[in-house]
Amino acid sequence: MRWRTVGRVAGTVLVALAVPGAVAAAGIAGARGEVYTAREPGAPSAPVDDVAAPTHDPGKPTAVILLGSEGANAADVLAPYEVLATTGAFNLYTVAPQRQPVPLTGNLDLVPDLSLGQLDQRLPTGPEVIVVPQLSEVASGLPPSVAPVIAWLQRQRAQGDPLLVSVCVGAQVPAEAGLLDGRPATSHWLGLIGLRRNYPQVGWQDGVTYVDDGDVISTAGVLSGVDGALRVIERMVGPAAAAKAARAVAWPAYHPGGPAAIRQSRPAPADVVGLLSAGYRWDRPSTGVLLTDGVGEIELASAFRPYTELSYLARPVAMTTDGRPVRSRHGLTFVPRADLASAAPGLDRLVVPGADAARRAVADGLSLPERLTPRYLHDQPGFAFDAAVGDIARTQDVATARWVAKTLQYPTTNPKLSGPAWPWALTLRPILLAAAAVAAVLGIQIVRRRRSAPGGDHATTH
């Protein structure tokens, strides 16, 4: 009898854990699936043929930012791009296997400047600098669509000596290509767990913003790509140009002459807030992100990456007032997925990135539902991601904002944040699911005991 009781208790506990666990697994899968999605047929047209590739100056070195066909991390791409672009010292191109819109994190569609084939025609000897960001959900396994990128990288290394710069878990791509074998490298603190297991032939390091190994520079997580780009500028243009570029993007952590030491992040109990958000935030708001001409590339990245990958706080919708593409500060073309007028009725929030857009109050006076008061994300000076982390603390909670900062490998380990301390309402969801599961099990057990008791539903009378 005692063992039967123990078995019932164990079964009840198992159900109490299994139900919220299954719900969380489904929630995480759904949230991850929303980070990079294909354009829907009803989205505004993407006139790639009308977007002219930048002119080439043979007197300048060429740097390219690689994109995958299925997407790339917005911060990994746009932060190094803007840092390099501020110098004016490079021919700077975004390139992808095909010249068609590529979704960046949160489905911000970027038109590549060139396809890989077009780049090869323009530069038969290859570029001097190649930046490899995280390509789509590369950390969960390299999809077949990455194969052309790997093959292209191997050809570039075989025919020349380009400076290869990996950003965050983008290091997996050159590692898979065999270009990091026997060499020191670094990556995102969370990605290093799998990278050490899958590529033991690489000398993985952590605790530094980047590792400079001559013709390969690898950077730590996400925003460390800024430091990697500054290191490229130091080496190819000079320290003064790097310092000027850091000031241009208001980067607070420039460390001249070498990598800065950073805290060696590890999974911690407080990180459970990330699992709660991924697994149980079923009511993620549909957030319109209004794109405007001249917006800074890092400003754009800050409106998408902090709210999506590894936080899953919102469902961003890139839009313009008229559904037409926009050009960023340094000439990238972004194609919206909606126009503001048609999308506004379905939005829960409207965010407007860009300090210039805030100064011009570009969304004021537009015909919008009352609930859609525009939130000008960059109405205060500073590094663009400061605004996003602060916004998350105010609109969600401080614990989630700290998790986002940790996933970004933010240079400031203790940013000043104000807002609710913890997402208590979100925390209740798995608890209530477990309680409901236990109540259901206990109810079934009570019904069974009643039916099996003398005089119960199945008792016979004579």
Any overview of this molecule?
The chain has helices at residues 2-33, 74-85, 116-122, 147-159, 172-176, 191-198, 224-236, 239-248, 272-280, 297-302, 340-343, 355-360, 384-395, 398-407, 424-452, and strands at 62-66, 91-96, 102-104, 108-111, 114-115, 129-132, 163-166, 184-186, 203-205, 210-212, 216-219, 286-290, 315-320, 326-327, 333-335, 338-339, 349-352, 375-376. The mean pLDDT is 93. It is an alpha/beta fold. A hairpin with a 5-residue loop joins strand 14 and strand 15. The protein folds into two domains: 23-42 and 270-407, Rossmann fold (3-Layer(aba) Sandwich); 58-248, Class I glutamine amidotransferase (GATase) domain (Rossmann fold). The protein is built from 15 helices and 18 strands. 38% of the residues lie in helices and 14% in strands. A seven-stranded mixed β-sheet has the order 5-2-1-6-7-11-10. It has a five-stranded parallel β-sheet with strand order 16-13-12-17-18. Strands 3-4-15-14 form a four-stranded antiparallel β-sheet, with no helix packed on it. Helix 1 (2-33) crosses helix 9 and helix 2 packs parallel to helix 7.
CATH topology of the largest domain: Rossmann fold
**Main beta-sheet annotation:** 7 strands, mixed
Mean pLDDT, rounded to whole units?
93
Our count of helices gives 15
Which secondary-structure class do the elements indicate?
A: alpha/beta
Helix content: 25-40%
- Cα radius of gyration in angstroms: 25 Å
CATH class of the largest domain: Alpha Beta
The strand order across the widest sheet is 5-2-1-6-7-11-10
Q: What is the CATH architecture annotation of the largest domain?
A: 3-Layer(aba) Sandwich
Distance between the termini: 31 Å
Choose one word for the global shape: globular
